Amino acid sequence: MLRELFDKKNNASTMSxxxxxxxxxxxxxxxxxxLPGVITSLIYREWSEAVAMSLAAIVTVAIGVVAWRIYxxxxxxxxxxxxxxxxxxxxxxxxxxxxxxxxxxxxxxVTDAFFESAAGFTTTGSSIIPDPSIVSHGVLxxxxxxxxxxxxxxxxxxxxILPLLGVGGVQLAQAxxxxxxxxxxxxxxxxxxxxxxxxxxxxxxxxxxxxxxxxMNLFQAIAHSLTTxxxxxxxxxxxxxxxxxxxTQWVVIVFMIIAGTSxxxxxxxxxxxxxxxxxxxxxxxxxxxxxxxxxxxxxLLSSGQLAGEGVEAHxxxxxxxxxxxxxxxxxxxxxxxxxxxGLQILIVGMMFLGGMGGSTSxxxxxxxxxxxxxxxxxxxxxxxQPRGVHLTRFGRDVVKPEIVQDVQTFFMFYMFLxxxxxxxxxxxxxxxxxxxxxVTSASAxxxxxxxxxxxxxEVGPASNFLGLPGPSKWLLSGxxxxxxLEIFPIILLFTRRLWK
Length: 500
Hints:
By secondary structure, the chain is an all-alpha fold. 66% of the residues lie in helices and 1% in strands. The chain is built from 22 helices and two strands. Strand 1 and strand 2 form a beta hairpin. The longest helix has 32 residues, at 401-432. The model is unreliable at 1-10 and 164-171 (pLDDT under 50).
């Protein structure tokens, strides 16, 4: 009996040290990622911000090194430990990501700083900063960089950190996206990660060049490209992209759609140009955007919301809004919070869609939407013809029953979090007397879980999340992280079985 207890304690200690090894390395890497912000501050002669961000980087690296090199122990992670490592690592980097905001006094309290940091690393785009244009250049670059790193988080981890630690990346990749298995281009996951990473960097550089040819300066082009390819949505201006030219908005539209598409599919298209057109999920992804776009432009025209504008402006406003919501980017070019209620309901519904699996977008994802719909049709046919064989198909492919079950389980937990989060938001607001309406609460929760960005009413595109009470911000921050990690890694952190 004593021997068994000793073995359990020893195994738990070994697990915690392996987790510290991974999480410490990730935190240390986050500290080095602050250096571009320091360099940017030096370029723009923001001396005090450069010193403050340097101190934040040093503190972050020191925390990471202590956990990594002193407490941590190297070792191959099990799948269970992979889930724990992913969940704890994202929480840890969200906490250390607050230091540049706090040290530069850009944000003066931990609650708001954690909200901004979590929104960055989860590529949500919700913000408590009313006017980004008055924030220093160094902090804005850090803010954009958190989203760019968060967008391809596991890819960055598997290339830049894991090779140094001798740890495989498959367990972490499966833990970060538990409902959709990593799409391998090569037998080795690390080689696949490198190819996707080069493509991610390449698209970012191309967008920087194209935006710089428009009415953005180089700094704005870099900041917005980082947050477009990550489907993040942080900007440098208080009105997001509303004040930029039609050319700039069309460029961003194209790259939002690219970012919402599977990067593995993009890579295959380099050698097989018809890869996109023949892919069932891509067809559904584009089809959903077309259908919602037609519904939206019809609603806008019938309600007179676009009165006085030209055809190009009508089309651009519609396509931009559809792309920014479905890809969960969250940029704003129009205040859809002022549109008629029917269109606002459509927008909330779009928050539950998302881009393709293997993209940087959030929410449910197109593949799961297609499987859920197909499974629902199969169940209806089964009721009518109980003796028939009714298979769930995605395109021409038969979906295995266990995959259907995984998708349905994910969606059940997703909706459970949405309903519970909305209830808790309403409870917090009523308890504190904040007077926030149900539209604000529900849309804030939907946009947090889906990693979209703006909501409706008091958290709409023309406003921000600053006015929410502290407990609501902590709740939404947790939902952002849960949504970015596709729920299960965070839920499992609260189960006893994970830690046995």
